[in-house]
Amino acid sequence: MRSIHNAVREQFSQHADYYAQSSAHATGDTLNMLLDFAEPKGTELTLDIATGTGFTAFAFAPKVEHVVATDLTPEMVAKAVELAQEQAIKNVAFSVAAAESLPFATASLDLVTCRLAPHHFQDVPAFLSEVHRVLRTNGLFCMTDSVSPESEKLSAWQNRVEKMRDDSHVYGYPPSQWDEMIADAGFVLEKTAHARNALLSFLWWVRPEKNPPEVVRNIRDAFVQLSPEEAKEHYTVCPAGEDFYFSWPMYAVKARRV
Ligand SMILES: C[S@@+](CC[C@H](N)C(=O)[O-])C[C@H]1O[C@@H](n2cnc3c(N)ncnc32)[C@H](O)[C@@H]1O
Question: Distance between CA 148 and CA 131 in Å, rounded?
Answer without folding.
Answer: 23
